[in-house]
Amino acid sequence: MSAKDNQKVYFGDKKVSKESKKDGVENIFTKVSENYDLMNDVMSFGMHRLWKKSFVETSQIEKDDICLDLAAGTGDIAKLISKKVKGKTIYLCDQNNEMIEKAKERSLDEGFYQKCNFNVSSAESLPYEDETFDKVFISFGFRNFSDKKGSLKEINRVLKKGGSLQILEFSAAQGKNFSKLYDFYSYNFIPKIGDFISGDHASYDYLVKSIRTHENQEEMLELFNQTGYLESTYENIFKGIVALHRGIK
User: Fold this and answer.
1) Helical H runs in the chain?
2) CA 37 vs CA 8, 50, 54, 98, 104: distances in Å
3) How far apart are CA 125 and CA 139, in angstroms?
């Protein structure tokens, strides 16, 4: 194992090996898969639905674009993309098999299965050829990657030249008073609500802590620049609770 592979990364608020984080995230999302959409409602006051809609609407998808929904979860982003493309051009990829199964169920129930391809894989080793995709989307999953820089390089590999990466993720709230209020809500209420909903306090506690130890807006921008993306930008949403980062290959 190389020194790079053995580098410690945050899992919640603790530093662990990359492999330990990967296993830990896998276990957590297996546990929360049944209540994943409800979890996002709790953590974002229900606003994630509007943020995701805007995320896709502003991405300038063309009808012939081949799109990768990475860390696809239950497929809500893919459903939005499906309204803009023709043919079987959406690829949903998640490292958690239970999540992909939920996405398949959703796509069948909600009528967009025929436009989708499904894969179970980590973001660090994608099962796609070089320069496959016009657009890659990651919605509230990037902070859980065990090797963020490695993932960005791998995404760059599978993007076509001129293709875009767009990441919607919880970020650093702006303003001292607002940050304090957000912290109070996050630490004191989200794990308790998660416990009430699913009897799983620990997973929701992790999710709150994973937001606080994730790179802030400027640090994310630097990661984009370090891994070869051009014209990298970010936009704060809801006073920085969420940020939308974009970069071009």
Assistant:
1) 18-32, 36-44, 48-57, 76-82, 97-109, 148-158, 176-198, 201-213, 217-226
2) 30, 13, 17, 14, 15
3) 18
Token pair for residue 51? 């943020």
User: Region 208-237: what's the mean pLDDT?
Assistant: 94
What DSSP character marks residue 3?
Answer: T
Name all domains of the chain by residue range, CATH numbers in brackets.
Answer: 33-174+205-248 (3.40.50.150)
CA dihedral 223, 157, 61, 113 (to 10 degrees): -120
What percent of the chain is predicted at pLDDT more than 90? 61
φ and ψ of 248, to 5 deg: -115, 140
Q: Kindly report the pTM of this predicted structure.
A: 0.88
- Contact by Cβ (8 Å): 105, 72: no
Which amino acid appears at position 89 of this protein? T
Q: pLDDT (tens digit, 9 = 90+) per residue, 66-114?
A: 999 999 999 999 999 999 999 999 999 999 999 999 999 999 999 999 9
Give bridge partners of residue 92 from the DSSP assignment. 69, 118
Question: How far is the C-alpha of 214 from the C-alpha of 209, rounded, in Å?
Answer: 9
Q: What is the pLDDT of residue 13?
A: 64
pLDDT above 70 as % of the chain: 90
Crossing angle for the helix pair 201-213 and 18-32, to the nearest 10 degrees: 130
pLDDT at 39 over 60: yes
